[in-house]
Design brief:
The chain is α/β, with parallel strands linked by helices. It is built from 26 helices and 14 strands. The strands form 4 sheets. A 4-stranded mixed β-sheet has the order 2-1-3-4, covered by helices on one side. It has a 4-stranded antiparallel β-sheet with strand order 6-7-5-8. It is elongated.
Length: about 675
């Protein structure tokens, strides 16, 4: 078990122990310095984090720092009252530095600090927390509806929807925690005032009654200790109160506190470095315990620079792994005098994106863009989902494009384009809005959903109204991912097929050598896999695909027919992909329609084909489109269920008129799935 995973629990137990166990003055000095350092880092963290989830442990940190200050106050009070005001160098130095020989001035400064902390910062943070919590909780129903709309429209999958719901739930939990956490700071300020007067009055009584000292001597001794103790606790409290005001809009996390604390602090080495330099500055205050400060400051600086160096090495390694085209700085004419260089112009990238100049910062890593990371994530998800690794995406700038436009090319030819407003958000209309919002009308490029470009200040209200709000980078990534899914069958090359087969060979299976090329050629297998990808069927289960081909290749040589056998063997995959909760809603074909299709199947030397007359074809398609229109509220993606012999021909016929429809046969569905027919295509 890692120590750092339990560091916070151990630390809290030690803090509780300080309330009971008397601390020697040097150790108390070290704990005061640690308290100041921790407060500085918490304050800096609230300044450096970009969003709430990067410092979601704040409510718990607020409680821990409050307990630490109170425990140290109790320990210092014990020393002040039992050691005649001698409670360590930190308290003495702070008291002498502020008092400057005048007790009245020292108390006034201390009271001002307490009032500023209690009445200004803490009160303001508490109010902001209440207002933010109310606003976020009011927005929750709209956000939930937006997630459901995204899920139903296919923009996100079930896992992403679950993650978004968890984020919303964590936000609600966070603001509920913050509403009470701000009371800790208020109570700490009140307790500090009470403890200060107890120290002063108790010390005066003990010094005069038990110690036999004069009132002047007692006043001089205990005023320094009392004010110093109050300042040592109130300065960290002031920083924590300020941090509270900065973090009230943050969300909570679902990880354990120890892991979050260590990971989130270590992820920001600049915070540790600044905290170390700040401690060094404390050494210039006369009387401060230089040894303790330097020990902690050097430790923080060493840790910070070590972490920064390690992060820089990782960043350089990642940067080195990204292939970059090194442009040769030489005269173009002389370069192309070499005819071999001209052949380089003939190379075609499988996937290419071109951007107008305004969109370059959106995808440039040097500008802080996460576009490459998003592509890597998509490539991993697509491989797990479809069983195919998509090739690298070439990114180029194109001065001929509109500054806000981008183009997606497959094998050198444009297949899609879009337009992005970088400083705006895209608000998608899922169809169940509770209000309208002003914006620039547009159409979402990936799915063709009516949308609006809105400014950042309208994002929250748009989510409350039920809009699905996404950032510009997500629009581009989503459009690219859907384009790749649509054209995946064009991207599966012979080389990719060889790599897929080599992956199966690594498992020790002899299936590949038995089937390819003995029973089917590489080109035939590639044709079958492309047929599957074209209709969205995953090819990850290559062993089942090869086994099915092995069973039927001796008698069937047509790749189209072999594809149908493979689809039936992959019925578990097909059922999982298109069913929902053990149920699948479909549109069926009337027996008369299927009979017309079967009777129109013709055969020649190249294979079988459908020779249905144009009038009948148009009538069937029109009836189907009418059915799709009627049930579009029930089915997001139209699924047409046919008999096995009809499926392939009906799918090819429908491809020309409605390419987004899914055509399945009865043999491609598991027997345990419940089939619900919501419409039936008939011909009167």
């Amino acid at each position: 078990m890692k120590i750092r995973d339990n560091a916070v629990a151990i630390f809290v137990v030690i803090i509780i122990g300080f309330i009971i166990i008397p601390l020697p003055a040097p150790l108390l000095d070290m704990m005061f310095i640690i308290n100041i350092s921790l407060s500085i880092m918490v304050l800096l963290m609230t300044m450096y984090v970009k969003n709430a989830l990067q410092f979601s442990i704040f409510p718990s940190m607020l409680l821990m720092t409050t307990i630490l200050r109170l425990a140290l106050n109790i320990s210092s009070t014990r020393l002040i009252l039992t050691q005649s005001g001698k409670a360590g160098q930190v308290i003495q130095t702070f008291g002498e530095f502020v008092l400057r020989g005048n007790v009245v001035v020292g108390f006034i400064v201390f009271i001002i600090i307490v009032i500023v902390n209690f009445m200004v910062i803490t009160k303001g943070s508490e109010r902001v927390s209440e207002v933010s919590a109310r606003f976020k909780l009011d927005a929750m129903p709209g956000k939930q509806m937006a997630i459901d709309a995204d899920l139903n429209s296919g923009i996100i999958d079930e896992s992403m929807a679950r993650q978004r719901r968890e984020d919303i739930q964590r936000e609600a939990e966070f603001y509920g925690a913050m509403d009470g956490a701000t009371k800790f700071v208020k109570g700490d300020a009140i307790a500090s005032i009470i403890i200060t007067f107890i120290n002063f009055l108790g010390g005066t009584v003990i010094g005069m009654v038990q110690g036999g000292s004069s009132f002047t001597e007692v006043l001089n001794i205990y005023s320094i200790a009392t004010v110093g103790d109050g300042l040592v606790s109130q300065l960290p409290a002031l920083m924590i109160s300020t941090a509270t005001g900065m973090i009230v809009t943050r969300a909570a996390s679902d990880s354990s506190l120890s892991i979050d604390v260590t990971k989130q602090f270590l992820s920001r080495p600049i915070v540790i470095i600044i905290a170390g330099f700040t401690l060094i500055c404390l050494c210039f205050i006369p009387g401060m315990p230089v040894v303790q400060i330097l020990i902690l400051a050097i430790g923080l600086l060493a840790a910070g620079f070590n972490l920064k160096k390690r992060n820089d090495i990782v960043a350089e390694a990642q940067k080195a792994n990204v292939p970059e085209a090194a442009a040769a700085e030489q005269d173009e004419t002389s370069y192309y005098k070499n005819i071999d260089n001209i052949y380089d112009l003939l190379q075609i990238d499988a996937i290419e994106m071109e951007f107008g100049y305004s969109l370059i910062p959106l995808v440039d890593e040097n500008s802080g863009s996460s576009f490459i990371e998003r592509l890597v994530t998509f490539r991993k998800q697509f491989a797990l989902e479809m069983g195919m690794v998509i090739p690298a995406v070439r990114l180029r700038d194109n001065g001929m494009l509109n500054p806000n436009q981008y183009v997606i090319k497959i094998k050198g030819e444009e297949v899609s384009r879009g337009e992005i407003l970088v400083d705006y958000y895209l608000a998608l209309d899922p169809g169940n809005l509770t209000g309208e919002i002003d914006g620039i009308e547009t159409i979402e490029p990936a799915y063709g959903i009516p949308s609006k470009w809105i400014t950042k200040d309208k994002k929250e209200i748009a989510e409350i109204y039920g809009y699905t709000v996404i950032d510009p980078l997500s629009v581009v990534v989503t459009h690219l991912s859907e384009t790749v899914r649509k054209h995946a069958y064009e991207l599966l090359s012979r080389q990719d097929l060889n790599q897929l087969l080599d992956t199966i060979r690594k498992t020790g299976s002899t299936l590949v050598d038995d089937v390819v090329p003995n029973m089917i050629s590489f080109s035939g297998l590639q044709k079958i896999l492309c047929n599957l990808l074209k209709e969205g069927v995953p090819i990850r289960d290559m062993e089942t695909i090869l086994e099915t081909i092995s069973d039927h290749a001796a008698n069937v040589h047509d790749p189209e027919v072999l594809t149908e056998y493979v689809r039936q063997a992959l019925k578990r995959t097909i059922t999982r992909k298109w069913s929902d909760g053990g149920q699948i809603r479909v549109i069926t074909l009337d027996s008369e329609v299927e009979r017309l299709i079967v009777n129109s199947i013709s055969k020649n030397d190249q294979g079988t084909y459908l020779s249905l007359d144009p009038q009948t074809t148009q009538k069937i398609v029109s009836k189907l489109l009418d059915c799709i229109t009627r049930v579009k509220e029930v089915i997001n993606v139209p699924i047409i269920l046919t008999s096995p012999v009809v499926r392939i021909y009906f799918s090819k016929m429908l491809e020309q008129f409605y390419p987004n429809a899914v055509v399945l046969s009865f043999n491609e569905l598991n027997s345990d799935v419940q089939i619900q027919a919501v419409a039936n295509v008939t011909i009167e």
